[in-house]
């Protein structure tokens, strides 16, 4: 089966009726990048840059970050790469930042909230990203965006840094800008956010925990962590629709994007890019090769209009796949 799958490595992803969703990889470390390339990733849909901060006992310098980002872009040889600004906080604490303990870290000082507070740290990262953008196809996205004002502030700071580099005669490329949709408030206002960005990427790992009010790391409530819950699926569909109605593509970079039961539904919803761990890419490409997009549109519509439980959704998916 491994050998069979490896024949999919250098192919584009094509459904049985000729649609081409993009299969990209999530990466953190340089090792993940190797795996992404070996498994035929068509791009990087999520580079978790916080790994640079966590693997160190002090803040990484602008030059350290620049060379890490440039390296990823060069190794991807012009394929699209989405780098997420640091998602620190929540369950990812930096000992050297000495931030106070919080009662609800997942609802607290984390990701873009920290970046907009510690703009000194944020600016260093943005400058490194801007300098790296001259070496490949770079998109930057902001994690945990909740309000339009946060997004506007983040974009302004990025633009400010870009102007400063240009004035200093430093080469910068064109950067596409996106947000992660992982907070329900952003999901609900997706049509408004769509006017401010080039793309959105749905972060289901967090979005599910916030929609279901169930800590993603707490085993005692893990029964509520349901990717196929119709409430989650309806919200995801509304985000994808809002993107398309406003002329931008919809991506996903949570674990759900590589889930073999979820993929037929998400494909039917018209998701443009699935970003997953490298080891899921080839089997997902094989799965999509057997799917007809019109059948999957019907499946997606059935799940959001008829299902009231996760079990029903899984049942619909099995039925649809058997019919293929
Ligand atoms: C997510 O929340 O779905 C996501 C991709 O980000 P992380 O898992 O790093 O929080
Ligand atoms: Mg997240």
TrEMBL record:
It comes from the Bacteria. Residues 3-291 form the PEP-utilising enzyme C-terminal domain. It catalyses: L-histidyl-[protein] + phosphoenolpyruvate = N(pros)-phospho-L-histidyl-[protein] + pyruvate. Its cofactor is Mg(2+). The keyword Methyltransferase does not apply. Its EC number is 2.7.3.9. It is found in: Cytoplasm. Keywords: Cytoplasm, Kinase, Magnesium, Metal-binding, Phosphotransferase system, Sugar transport, Transferase, Transport. Its main location: cytoplasm. Belongs to the PEP-utilizing enzyme family. General (non sugar-specific) component of the phosphoenolpyruvate-dependent sugar phosphotransferase system (sugar PTS). This major carbohydrate active-transport system catalyzes the phosphorylation of incoming sugar substrates concomitantly with their translocation across the cell membrane. Enzyme I transfers the phosphoryl group from phosphoenolpyruvate (PEP) to the phosphoryl carrier protein (HPr). This is Phosphoenolpyruvate-protein phosphotransferase. It comes from Lentilactobacillus diolivorans. The lineage of its organism: Bacteria, Bacillati, Bacillota, Bacilli, Lactobacillales.
